[in-house]
Design brief:
Length: 349
């Protein structure tokens, strides 16, 4: 366990050092510093490419391990130019999303173009050999074979995770903190005897360090925002971790249960009402918390606590227990929704 502290601290420290430098650079040159939108909580102009600090730190630490300890990032026997084939697919997919996020943060991209590039990034992962070979039967039967259905399921999962974290990035510290919690949960899962994937644990430690290193500058009131550059990268990496750690989707779904359920609720509501799926609004769960009277910090803290609690449940239960926990999470989400809507209505004069 101790050997994973170094990559975590390296990633944390580099991000903590790089973020204020990046912030000041973007502000000085007025790059990706748009005026506040009506739904934004901050009244001042903030740079929106903070995710570049996370990506840069991640890249440096991964690069160091590829140079000095390449076997620590080995998933399969096959390599391309000395880099593990699976890892190269993940890095290329992440690069596509980072470039997409950068362009969108700086110049703007249409939703359909972004969606198409997200699908391409996910397909790259599959093309480089990552598969979901089987999933656990929730009823206790034999494992369910997936095989080449990975070409469909992996893009669906990764695109969903990218957009879940992107859409939920509506409060200071929300996506960066939840991503750090999720990566930490995957780290412990990857080191468990059942999974035993040290390479996955190493990547998760690096991502967790980067996410938490960014958080001090992204905590309310933030001085820099993740932007699509950061939120899509973090969503993609957490989604990949769920796949390469043995298709542990239930674990990821529990840790990120609230943003996932919020995503499904928002999509369903927009389809039913005829609203564009890509039209941002202020009806996400965290907006309901604010309308009910909670402060931004209190709202984010509550969501951190819920995510951490369900992460602990996921790490300490088997499939049946996780399904029960998912059911409890859905019930909690419904109850929260009712309470928050009633509270918000009572606050309206």
């Amino acid at each position: 366990m101790a050997e994973y502290l170094l990559p975590f601290l390296l990633s944390f420290g580099l991000t903590a050092l790089a973020t204020p430098v990046l912030r000041d650079f973007l502000l000085a040159r007025n790059i990706a510093v748009p005026p506040p939108r009506p739904r934004d909580l901050h009244a001042r102009r903030l740079p929106r490419m903070g995710g570049l600090a996370i990506v840069a730190s991640f890249s440096v630490v991964v690069g160091l391990y590829l140079v000095f300890a390449p076997d620590s990032l080995r998933f399969v026997e096959s390599t391309i130019s000395g880099i593990d084939r699976n890892l190269l697919g993940v890095l290329l997919g992440a690069l596509i999303l980072v470039a997409t996020g950068y362009w969108d943060d700086r110049y703007g991209l249409s939703p359909l173009v972004k969606l198409g590039l997200q699908v391409i990034a996910a397909l790259v992962v599959v093309a480089f050999g990552i598969r979901i070979w089987w999933i656990t039967d929730p009823l206790g039967g034999p494992n369910i074979s997936i095989g080449e259905w990975s070409w469909v399921l992996i893009p669906l999962w990764l695109v969903a995770m990218v957009n879940v974290m992107n859409w939920f990035d509506g409060l200071d510290g929300l996506t960066s903190g939840l991503s750090g919690i999720a990566a930490t949960a995957i780290f412990f899962l990857a080191l468990s005897p059942v999974v035993d994937q040290p390479a996955t644990a190493l990547l998760a430690a690096i991502v967790a360090g980067a996410a938490f290193g960014f958080l001090p500058y992204n905590w309310h009131p933030s001085s820099i925002i993740l932007g699509d550059t950061g939120s899509m990268f973090l969503g993609f990496m957490v989604g990949v971790f769920a796949i390469i750690s043995g298709a542990k989707f239930a674990t990821a779904a529990l840790v990120l249960g609230i943003p996932l359920l919020d995503f499904l609720w928002v999509v369903t509501r927009r389809l039913v009402t005829g609203q564009s799926l890509f039209q941002a609004d202020t009806k996400h769960l965290h907006h309901r918390f604010l309308a009910a009277g909670l402060s931004p910090r209190a709202t984010v803290s509550v969501l951190y606590i819920v995510a951490t609690a369900f992460a602990l449940i996921a790490l300490n239960t088997q499939t049946e227990g996780k399904l029960a926990a998912l059911g409890a999470l859905v019930a909690l989400m419904v109850l929260l929704g009712i309470v928050l809507v009633v509270s918000a209505k009572r606050r309206v004069p």
